[in-house]
Amino acid sequence: MTNRDAVAQLYTPIYDEFMLAEYKEWAQVHTKVFKSIDDSSKEYKVDDLSGLGIWEAATEGEGGGYEDPTQGYPKTYTQGKVWKKFQVSFEAVDQDEYALLKKEGNARSMGRGIRSKVETDTSAVLNDGFATAGPDGEYLWDTDHPRNREQTDSDLDSDNLLSGPFSHDNLELAEKQITDNFVDPAGIPIMPAEDPVILYPPALRGTVERVLADRANERPGTPNRDINVFAGRYNPVEWLYLSNKYGGSDTAWYIIYPELGFLKIIWSAKPHFTSWIDEDLEYYKFKGRAIYDCGVDNWRCGFASTGL
Length: 308
Description:
Strand order of the largest sheet: 1-8-9-4
Order of helices and strands: HHEEEEHHHEHEEEEE
Largest sheet: 4 strands, mixed
Oligomer: single chain
Distance between the termini: 67 Å
């Protein structure tokens, strides 16, 4: 016979399986651009230090050549707990032997809930970047990022705010802007990846697909039918949570460099189930919980345009 103390524990792994199945049902886009880190500490700190600068000439028999790393701007991630619960009364179980099994839908909906929560939080890092300051005190997408904390010359500022709607011509202008502004804290050019991610909301699907196709958006209607130089150069990724409906914009677009690891999600506890019995109120109680934080620790994660 199954006693009360075992009932909740009996269903916990089943509910956990249902929840995680729904959590993973849709491919989550944040995994394509955010670096996932498992860390059990309450705070996760990133110290932004550059590598050393350009090598200098040396003279035989003489010392020197030492250099301290250039200081950037530190970032602290503070993991917070999120949860959702449901409960089943003793009476419901006493009167219906399938009462607990019928809670499958609750567990599945919890999986959808935490998936949406994580996707909303991570996409908000990009969505809000046009009006929210990053570690250097400037908006994430801005025209005047200082290279490092020691910089005094504003002429050295970097600009990662692109201009205009997504188009063949504006992507060409963006590439030049990236080349001119993509430098590390010591001023050494950063070489972009061969296939950076272009993130965009569903409203831009047709435009992005045409611009990145074998022939550019502007070319098929012309007599020349020029080959599109952008074909195969980017990894286009559509993200529902970048859209206006979910707090973003239907016009904004982003060029992201995931391999640099500046967009992060820090997990102290990934989504999981726990359970307990409330003998006083006579309820079986089930809880899904997770502990994490997400954010950006360097503007060099990419470049973006409002699309306006």
